[in-house]
């Protein structure tokens, strides 16, 4: 007999797990299909292990300044210990996610799911077809490598977490989140790290002060940059990988990592059997309620090519469940999403960059502070923290907050709350500073550092 459900979810990552649990808690019969590990990218090979490795890498900085505070530290690092401890934590989280689903009454099916029609999903290994009133596609994405000779010799973030040993050197291609975060990790753990990027400066789309500050901070930690260049080919050279660059340089590296973006997991998903349409970039096209061109099929998270962040996928999963199973049509507001790059230094932002705000609003004020964070003052370290607020003119609404330095993500997360409430500069100023902190700058800015009027910097 055909098994049938109110909802079949394909992919147990951030978006799928939230949607499945909420729908089940609202009384729906739900099955979730996962062909790898419950938890998805974020838990298994994304945010969580990444942040743990960033923590590991940051000890290098702390040891460097420890002497200024009177400490003598003799440090050594063991990669195998970090990998094993990370693995234990990931296993724990996977169990917690599994228990959470089961506790809500969701049936977990470990198989590969493909769409077989508007209301049916085929299980590859079981050879069974499930019936579903509604199908949710939350299959996420995968790292994409450039199509160059020898690309198979390069790793991606998927493999980087579980390397058998640390390479003596690494070349990372890309200028986005993954490139910056993994350059930070490898450099902090003692690997000679070079970043090659086709553009002019890393972190395109972030505020320029954060981009230059991040670049300087990474250089200070020994990371080398090759700009305006791509990798043209890889070949094996003994234990090393020989890299041919577009500037004709050929050089060996202990490892090569592609951080050249991610592509939606749509291949072989059977979308054509239900007439599910794609966007121009090959993601699943959805409306504001995450509904695809097939009325019984929805999609959330990275596979939809909107904003590829875990909290966004979770919010989309929640909104989908509210819409379909709670009779409460809920659209996710993607307009004010905070984001952080866990490099060293750390960068975080919410709202418009100075440049985008000046283009969009013409008249804006910019409040900028650059200072040595207190932890650096006893050491020789000259690195500066950057704090920027972008507001509408003359104390108007705060429309951008950009921070580089220790705790940037934690601070921006809090600044995002008043910004979501449409707070203006006076609302920020009403808060009495907490001292000594870095974040107190946000409530003590006096005059703007610069103004734009008619889109022109004054
Ligand atoms: C290295 C790295 C670091 C990151 N760090 C952060 C961070 O710090 N903060 C942040 O907000 N975001 C971060 N992200 C992004 C975040 O991980 C994703 O945005 C998020 O996981 C997307 O959730 P999702 O539900 O769309 O898909 P995923 O979490 O990718 O889940 C999709 C699931 O579907 C499964 N699947 C795919 N196809 C099938 C199929 N046919 N049948 C069955 N199962 C299938 C996959 O195995 C996977 O488990 C990071 C990503 C990477 C790669
Ligand atoms: N801290 C976080 O929240 C976090 C961390 C990691 C990933 N993510 C999410 O995952 C997504 C993917 O991250 P990512 O760093 O892989 O992608 P990205 O889009 O941030 O960066 C990809 C980089 O590769 C370059 N590139 C693309 N194709 C190329 C090619 N053919 N040759 C050379 N360079 C090329 C791009 O110019 C860009 O600099 C991010 O957009 C983000 O949403 C978030």
TrEMBL record:
Binds 1 FAD per subunit. It comes from Devosia enhydra. Disulfide bonds join 42-47. Its cofactor is FAD. This is NADPH-glutathione reductase. Belongs to the class-I pyridine nucleotide-disulfide oxidoreductase family. PROSITE patterns: PYRIDINE_REDOX_1. Residues 339-444 form the Pyridine nucleotide-disulphide oxidoreductase dimerisation domain. Coiled coil: none annotated. One of its GO terms (molecular function) is flavin adenine dinucleotide binding. The lineage of its organism: Bacteria, Pseudomonadati, Pseudomonadota, Alphaproteobacteria, Hyphomicrobiales. NAD(+) binds at residues 174-181, 261. Keywords: Disulfide bond, FAD, Flavoprotein, NAD, Nucleotide-binding, Oxidoreductase, Redox-active center. Signal peptide: none annotated. GO terms for cellular component: cytosol. GO terms for biological process: cell redox homeostasis; cellular response to oxidative stress; glutathione metabolic process. Gene3D superfamilies: 3.30.390.30, FAD/NAD(P)-binding domain. FAD binds at residues 51, 113, 302. Residues 5-317 form the FAD/NAD(P)-binding domain.
């Amino acid at each position: 007999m055909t098994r049938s459900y109110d909802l079949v979810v394909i992919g147990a990552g951030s978006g799928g797990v939230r949607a499945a649990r909420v729908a089940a808690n609202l009384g729906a019969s739900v099955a979730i299909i996962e062909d790898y590990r419950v938890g998805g990218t974020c838990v298994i090979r994304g945010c969580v292990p990444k942040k743990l490795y960033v923590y590991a890498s940051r000890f290098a900085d702390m040891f460097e300044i420890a002497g200024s505070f009177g400490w003598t530290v003799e440090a050594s690092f063991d990669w195998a210990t970090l990998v094993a401890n990370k693995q234990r934590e990931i296993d724990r989280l996977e169990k917690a996610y599994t228990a959470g689903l089961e506790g809500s009454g969701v049936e977990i099916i470990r198989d590969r799911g493909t769409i077989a029609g508007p209301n049916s999903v085929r299980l590859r290994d079981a050879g069974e077809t499930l019936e579903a009133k509604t199908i949710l596609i939350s299959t996420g994405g995968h790292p994409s490598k450039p199509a160059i000779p020898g690309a198979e010799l390069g790793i991606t973030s998927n493999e980087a977490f579980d390397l058998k040993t640390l390479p003596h050197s690494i070349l990372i291609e890309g200028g986005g989140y993954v490139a910056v975060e993994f350059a930070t990790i490898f450099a902090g753990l003692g690997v000679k790290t070079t970043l090659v990027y086709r553009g002019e400066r890393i972190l395109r789309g972030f505020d320029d002060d954060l981009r230059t500050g991040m670049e300087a901070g990474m250089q200070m930690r020994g990371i080398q940059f090759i700009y305006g260049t791509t990798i043209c080919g890889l070949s094996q050279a003994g234990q090393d990988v020989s890299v041919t660059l577009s500037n004709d340089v050929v050089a060996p590296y202990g490892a090569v990592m592609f951080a050249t973006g991610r592509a939606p997991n749509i291949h072989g998903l059977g979308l054509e059997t239900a007439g599910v349409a794609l966007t121009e970039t090959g993601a699943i096209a959805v409306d504001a309620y995450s509904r695809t061109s097939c009325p019984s099929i929805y999609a959330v998270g990275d596979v939809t090519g909107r904003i590829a962040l875990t909290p966004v996928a979770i919010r989309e999963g929640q909104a989908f469940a509210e819409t379909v199973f709670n009779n409460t049509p809920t659209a996710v507001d993607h307009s004010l999403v905070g984001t952080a790059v866990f490099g060293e230094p750390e960068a975080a932002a919410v709202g418009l960059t100075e440049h985008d705000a000046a283009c969009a609003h013409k008249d804006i004020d910019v409040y900028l502070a650059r200072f040595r964070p207190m932890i650096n003052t006893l050491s020789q370290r000259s690195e500066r923290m950057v704090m920027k607020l972008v507001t509408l003119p003359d104390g108007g609404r705060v429309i951008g907050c950009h921070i580089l330095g220790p705790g940037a993500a934690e601070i921006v997360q809090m600044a995002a709350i008043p910004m979501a409430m449409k707070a203006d500069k006076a609302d920020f100023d009403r808060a009495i500073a907490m001292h000594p902190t870095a974040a107190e700058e946000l409530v003590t800015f006096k005059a703007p550092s610069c103004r734009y009027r008619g889109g022109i910097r004054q």
